[in-house]
Amino acid sequence: MSAGLLSSEVPLAEAFDLALVDLDGVAYKGHLPIAHAADGLAGARERGMRLVFVTNNASREPEDVAAQLSELAIPTLPDEVMTAAQACAALLRTRLEPGAKVLVVGGKGLVTAVSAAGFKVVASADDEPVAVAQGYSPELGWAQLAEAAYAVGRGAWHVASNLDLSLPTARGFAPGNGALVGAVVAATGVAPASAGKPSPTMYHLAVERAGAERVLVIGDRLDTDLAGAREGGYPGLHVLTGVSTARDAVLAEPGLRPAFLAADLRALLEPHPAPVLTDDWWVCGAAAAQVSDGVLRLGEASASPSGAAAPGAVGIDLVRVACAAAWAAVDAGEALDPATVPELTA
């Protein structure tokens, strides 16, 4: 798959038969809806696109996630949800025999997934577990982290549901599972395996379960959602409703780059043009961009672009050309001064 932006002459909901949709920052933010998410996903379903919601959160059951989505006008069934807890249990199965003791440090979603995978869930390092499965839970405290550290220190395999350092909530960013895993790592010096994004494990499981052939990953975080898409070989749509900004996308390394860009999920119902190189400028719609002498310059394609666009320049086409110009320059070995990349609003 190309490290640059892709084009689609038809709406993405028609070009792909399955979308793997992230939750926090894409479908909702904390307990609040995200503008146009419900309408965009409903329209995608009307065009025949199937949806599976894929989340790094391992604390909740698929039934709870489906219920929250349904309350936000996104009707969802439990089997349309794939959690990091399920991926964590699948990773445990690659090395452990059924009946093996696993110390679960996390919420009920992880307990259920590990139990359903055939393992014996224990709560203490003194039970001699052969593995520690760690996932996010808002109730997690020092005592549980200490049990995990004791078990890992005695040789138990440490498997994290994900390594997200932060968790978006309605009030801002809170410590994520990766921050809590970091406490165990600091105490033991042992690096854990991870089942969550950016590992593509969940994506592969969801695709296998759905039996899909043309798969689109939708996310808001370059370092998890889109990195996982790249690693798994799936095109990724970066929606600018969550963590990673348009500027982050412009400055992204090849392994973190999306294949498509969008302001919100209404983009599933639209074609996606890709920038083209014309007279040393990358052009898409009325927007144009180039990198010259390490400086990103933005302008209008209808005129002779000159100078740099002011911070706050708007339009998804402007984001597209900025990405195309920056990525092409960096990949060709040219320097790009990050200070010349403004904040862009789609």
Structure in words:
It holds the Pfam family Hydrolase_like. There is one protein chain. With 346 residues, the protein is of the alpha/beta class. The protein folds into 3 domains: 12-56 and 198-269, Rossmann fold, CATH 3.40.50; 85-194, Rossmann fold, CATH 3.40.50; 276-340, no CATH class. It is 32% helix and 21% strand. The chain has 11 helices and 19 strands. The protein has helices spanning 12-15, 37-46, 62-71, 84-93, 108-116, 142-153, 177-188, 201-210, 222-232, 246-250, 316-331; strands at 18-21, 28-29, 32-33, 50-55, 81-83, 101-105, 120-122, 131-134, 157-160, 166-169, 172-175, 193-194, 215-219, 236-239, 260-262, 276-278, 281-284, 287-292, 295-300. The strands form 5 sheets. It has a 6-stranded parallel β-sheet with strand order 5-4-1-13-14-15, with helices on both faces. Strands 7-6-8-9-12 form a 5-stranded parallel β-sheet, sandwiched between helices. It has a 4-stranded antiparallel β-sheet with strand order 16-17-18-19, with helices on one face. α5 (108-116) links the parallel β6 and β7 (120-122). The longest helix is centred in the last third of the chain and has 16 residues, at 316-331.
Globally, the shape reads globular
- Mean pLDDT across every amino acid position: 93
CATH homologous superfamily classification of the largest domain: HAD superfamily/HAD-like
Highest CATH level, the class of the largest domain: Alpha Beta
CATH architecture designation of the largest domain: 3-Layer(aba) Sandwich
Count of β-strands: 19
Q: Order of strands across the biggest sheet?
A: 5-4-1-13-14-15
Q: Determine the strand fraction and express it as a percent band.
A: 15-25%
The total number of structural domains is 3
Percentage of residues assigned to helices? 25-40%
